[in-house]
Amino acid sequence: MTKPLIVANDIAGLGKVATAAALPLLAACQIETALLPTVLLSSHTGGFPDVYVEDYTQGLQAFLQQWRSLEQDFSALLTGYLAGPEQLSSILDFAKEKNLPLLADPVMGDKGRLYHGFDQQYVKAMRQLVSQAHLVLPNLTEAALLLDRPYSGELLPEAVLEEICRELAGLGAKQVLLTGVQTAEDQIGFAYYDSETGSFCIFQGSRLPQHFYGTGDMVTALAAAAFIQKVPLEQMLPLILDFVSRSLLSTVERGADLRLGVFYQPHLAQLWTDFQRLAAVDSRCQPRLKHPRPSLGHAAG
Fold first, then answer.
1. CA 6, 12, 13, 15 torsion: positive or negative?
2. Is 291 contained in some domain?
3. In this predicted model, what pLDDT tens digit does every residue of 96-140 receive, in sequence order?
4. For the whole model, what pTM was predicted?
5. Considering the domain boundaries, does residue 290 fall inside one?
6. Which one, of 175, 192, 279, lies nearest residue 230 by Cα?
7. With contact defined as beta carbons under 8 Å apart, do 195 and 171 qualify?
8. What is the CATH number of the domain that holds 40?
9. Which PROSITE patterns does UniProt cross-reference here (predicted)?
């Protein structure tokens, strides 16, 4: 049994995003978790009116204070939506004290814009967190903010994606997983860079026209599971694309309100089987692919 993974993210009462999206996937990958709430919401903010939002900074600090007093080991610390620089500082201090690998989804913005309530002070604080991360998982907007470079849209050539990944690694992160990348209008997926080996890979699949909430959280959770179980991301990313693709098709076929999140439940058993197969393989015996063939799927991030 692995030591618990700390999941620092918001908790929404309605809508399967953030923590609600991640926990079942981590459980399917046999990952124990410790929850560190950052913000409490009555629903996520993507399309629902009159959302109740409570900044949970005081509670987060109380959680960490208790955990410092316990003889409890953790495997890593995974960050998602954080309420402000104070939370970033508290989390970074705790990770350093406990010598925990940081897995950072630097949630700050999308489509070239910062999310409401964030400013350049927050970007600076996030840059500091990312500099200490083992794995960072930004979308293209967040990558531009972290690097202080112009946002150039979602459709970019492979050479530019590799340049962005290398620059992000230059901030200090050992591995970079750039999400929501497109090299063609009908494709979407990831660009992955490992600074220790110099390996750069692009994984893409078919892009669906609908907007799905929580897909980025799904990708982050599964990438974190791979990190904890020592499954190389080059091997995990095709599995993630396939799982997300099948889940999105099930969501569309079900015809439910897309604001409620992705209907991935029918595919959890297959996820468990596929992940256990990867986790059982000695990764030292696996080749590292430079440019693997794209797998069908869709992932927004």
1. negative
2. no
3. 999 999 999 999 999 999 999 999 999 999 999 999 999 999 999
4. 0.91
5. no
6. 279
7. no
8. 3.40.1190.20
9. PROKAR_LIPOPROTEIN (PS51257)
